[in-house]
Amino acid sequence: MLLTKEIYRDDSFQRIKKIFYNEKDQIIGTLETFKGKEEGDEFGRLDVHEYTDESYRLIQYKNDTKAYAHFTSQGHKVLGKNGWYSIEEAASVQDFKYENGLLLARNCRSEDGTTYSYHYTYQNGVKVSEKSVAVDGTVTKINYTYQGKTVLSQSTIINDRFSDQINYRYDQNGLLVEEQKFLKHGESLFLSTQKNFFYNAKKELEKTEHHGRYDGKMYLYKVEETIRKGNERNIKLYLIPEVEMVIGQYDMASMHDYMKRSHMEFAIPIFNKEYITKTKLQLLGHNTETVDEQGKVIESKVINPENNEEIGKVLYRNEYNEKSLLEFVICYRVLENGKAEESSIEKYYYKE
Hints:
Elements: E1 2-10, E2 13-21, E3 27-36, E4 42-52, E5 55-62, H1 66-74, E6 92-99, E7 102-110, E8 115-123, E9 126-133, E10 139-147, E11 150-158, E12 161-170, E13 176-185, E14 188-199, E15 205-214, E16 217-229, E17 232-239, H2 252-261, H3 275-278, E18 282-291, E19 297-303, E20 310-320, E21 326-334, E22 340-351
Antiparallel strand pairs: 1-2, 1-22, 2-3, 3-4, 4-5, 5-6, 6-7, 7-8, 8-9, 9-10, 10-11, 11-12, 12-13, 13-14, 14-15, 15-16, 16-17, 17-18, 18-19, 19-20, 20-21, 21-22
């Protein structure tokens, strides 16, 4: 079944998205309308898709254009016809070039004339490189290495200068267990950050540990944890406060230079040699979730990390059709008196 319409509504905002298809079940247009609570607080966007063999063009129009007005007055039957819209008044135009199912190029142009381009190359069906050119002429190249179909590393070069390299390591089940990011200091590479991934017996991600370089050494500075038990999820975030925005530099001098370039000179006295050792990991976020058989959240609680008391609760009513596709979601916030108050609703419509 194909999704044809989405509706989202809360106390102050409403969004409606309609999706239109051709006889090949390709999307040929989408219309999104947004309406706020205040009078006149309305706007919309129209997307038109043009297909040429495998390739296609995506043209976006704002609600103050002739194309948008024509579409909303004449209806979706104008899609697929020529002469009712022009490229000149488009907010953006994106061209996607495919060959044998692989994306070879994407070119973008906005209404102010700025352009971006992306080009991709493949070997044995996997992407081995991509190249992008930004509006200011910056050229970014990313090269990938593989073992079979599994990516082992990617290196980024900006304007012919090395930027970074990321290496990936997997276990015997093919699960990603380590991600290392290397930067350059002088002519040598150094390990900047590292992520380690841990899974439960069902191969579900349970914990992510983030390590980063500070004063020439690697430290654990962040832990994301999701413990699953039946249909319940216990989600916790541990973090050394504030350090994430500066970690990963070669040494203290490099870190302070980076902070100056980033207009953070005021914080240099805070991030001294002792900060990373004296400041411990703290539990800064704690949530619990209960999910239904489809994995959608039906209850979410926010827990105060300091005293483990519940400080917020939201309930969700999820309804599905005979194909097990989501039809609507009603969100209820639970007030201090324990009563549930509807806060938003989402509806979904499909066609065969």
